[in-house]
Amino acid sequence: MATANDSLNILKHLSFFRIWNLFLLYYSFIISRISKKSIVWGKPFSVSIEPTTACNLSCPQCPSGLKSFKRATGKLDLKVNADLIKSVGKQLFYINYYFQGEPFLHPQFLDLVKEAKKNKIYTATSTNAHFINKKKAEEIVASGLDRLIISIDGTTQKTYQSYRVDGLLEKVIEGSKNLVAAKKELNSATPHLIFQFLVVKPNEHQVDEIFKLAKELNIDEVRLKSAQVYDYVHGNDLIPENEKYARYVKKADGTYKLKAETGNHCWRMWSSCVFTWDAKVVPCCFDKDATIQLGSAINEDFSAIWKSKKYTNFRQQILTGRNKIGICKNCSEGSKVWI
Fold first, then answer.
1. How many CB atoms lie within 10 A of CB 232?
2. What angle do CA 116, 272, 114 make, to 5 degrees?
3. Are 92 and 47 in contact (CB under 8 A)?
4. Does the CA dihedral 39-41-46-49 come out positive or negative?
5. Strand 295-296 and strand 256-258: pairing?
6. Secondary-structure breakdown of the chain: helix, strand, coil percentages, each rounded to the nearest 5
7. Is the pTM of this model over 0.85?
8. pLDDT tens-digit profile of 296-325?
9. Is 194 within 8 Å of 150 (Cβ atoms)?
């Protein structure tokens, strides 16, 4: 029922204009794949906007947790957020307020969400839920946030902290309970609450348990996610033993490769883009250090960036030699990310 309510909520945010834009994007994507020539009609249907690079945890495969960024770090300004929403266009349907960092470390995070809701945009974010007390939970529900993904990668403290280093499972459960209570108190169907369980070797034996825990807490949905690891060719302690939970498969010579073959295509390059906290435009969420900057939405008109020669050339490279692009070599496009 809860998943059906979320689907209905998504449909409520659609309009003929937004559907038509999506059609133009997809049709131009198909033509581009066939012709091997970059053609883009329409503007992004969805975007990710980074609230902050700061994080309270130290997850081993995350540059935010490892404090290993080579790019500038900081937090999104409220005016920049409003300007981004305006510049992308009224066809924008979905904003994921997440890239790197913990969103609720941004002191005005919910004001970012409220700005998007003024424009009738479906909003989502992802959190480690360490900062959601009773008052904050009520504020989240009242903000109009549509979807909240809660990272909970273990059902015991030992397994949880094996990946979510410096994290406390009891804080995640407490925050989750506060959100469920706030939704009930305010008689709200949103945000749609999702337990995201990143399946890695230390926790793969607890997959069944996370579904039980979610049911006990009245969480709306559970999603199992396969983990991206940086050094996978010669194996990695995080790769699950059960291959159905892994993005990588062991070859006859003992080395590993991505399950999915990365062909010369990527729908993300037509449908969406990512904005860093300081409004740099990057291709997708795999460019965590913003190594491929396609423009600055502060200094340039976004429409010009979206159709620029630099962006066109990047899409062209995707169509003809994606395997030569660094951020694409460990990409989940075409993989079964959600298990």
1. 19
2. 10
3. yes
4. positive
5. unpaired
6. 40, 15, 45
7. yes
8. 999 999 999 999 999 999 999 999 999 889
9. yes
